Amino acid sequence: VRELIKSRKWCGIDHIIERDRNLGLANSIISGVTELCEKYGRVIVMEDDLLVSRYFLSYLNSALDRYEGEEQVMQISGHIFPIKVEAKIDAVFLPFTTSWGWATWARAWAHFDGGMKDYHKLEDDAGLRKRFDLGGAYPYFQMLKSQHEGRIDSWAIRWYLSVFMLNGLTLFPRKTLVENTGFDGSGTHGGPSEKSLTERLTDFNVVNFPEHIEVPERDFRGVRDFLGKRRGLAGTLRAFLSRLA
Predict the structure, then answer these.
(1) Lowest mean pLDDT among 78-82, 145-149, 208-212, 228-232
(2) Can you say whether the dihedral through the CA atoms of 166, 137, 148, 193 is positive or negative?
(3) What residues contact 101, with CB distance under 8 A and at least 6 apart?
(4) What's the mean per-residue pLDDT of the chain?
(5) What are phi and psi of 155, to 5 degrees?
(6) Residue from 93, 63, 70, 62 nearest 80 by CA
(7) In this predicted structure, what is the pLDDT of residue 202?
(8) Which phi-psi region, left, alpha or beta, contains residue 150 (left: φ > 0; alpha: ψ -120 to 50)?
(9) Which residues contact 7 (CB under 8 A, 6 or more apart)?
(10) How confident is the model at residue 35 (pLDDT cuts 50, 70, 90)?
(11) With contact defined as beta carbons under 8 Å apart, do 125 and 131 qualify?
(12) Given this model, what pLDDT does residue 234 score?
């Protein structure tokens, strides 16, 4: 991996951090996001198996500038599930987080709760759990429970809990600017059954941003319907949840 990273110039200025031990995915993301937020006030995060649109960075940077002072907006996502977004604008707010090509600010990441202090609030409140599961469409709480019991080590589900408890929102593009290529069976956490969760890139560009910080119900319902139809695919579910680790 180190030889590959050093084999070419990836951007204008490369700063490569080499650890003396494997921190694991969750600790690497948490420490990396924390350090970059402390240094720059914002961060863009990518995994190694993502292909991105030529508009990916300009969209994220524009959104980071535009919503920097909006406390309820806690994340910008480059990926969206293959659903038809009804909104006429090029991006929409939805009440959950993502892990496939995203960005955030120091003021939002400051609320990251690695210890999951609010876990028991969901455990004791069926209505809150259902809302956490997007109206029962997807079992995110089951992953949170696995994290609480020490069976997985996920940064993403803890980040989602942190955002959820503050009624935070994520901005998503109307069409995906990220394609996940890790579904060919060669990856550790992904498999061919997950291909339906992503789609190929187009030349879509986000030009019109939402003026109001609100969730369009029709588009949120479209996400819930899309994910709800996949709840019966046990293999897909297990693989998808593990990828969020």
Answers:
(1) 228-232
(2) negative
(3) 45, 46, 47, 50, 52, 56, 77, 78, 79, 177, 178
(4) 89
(5) -75, -35
(6) 93
(7) 87
(8) left
(9) none
(10) very high
(11) no
(12) 42
Q: Write out pLDDT tens, residues 75-104.
A: 999 999 999 999 889 999 999 999 999 999
CA distance 81 to 195: 11
- What's the pLDDT score for residue 1? 85
Tell me which residue of 72, 76, 105 sits closest to 212, measured CA to CA. 72
Q: Record the tokens describing residue 63, joined without a space.
A: 């959104």
C-alpha 153/C-alpha 1 separation (Å) is 23
Instruction: State the amino acid at position 91 in one-letter form.
Output: A
Tokens of 194: 């997950």
Nearest to 95 by CA among 143, 165, 184, 21: 165
Residue with tokens 């970059």: 36
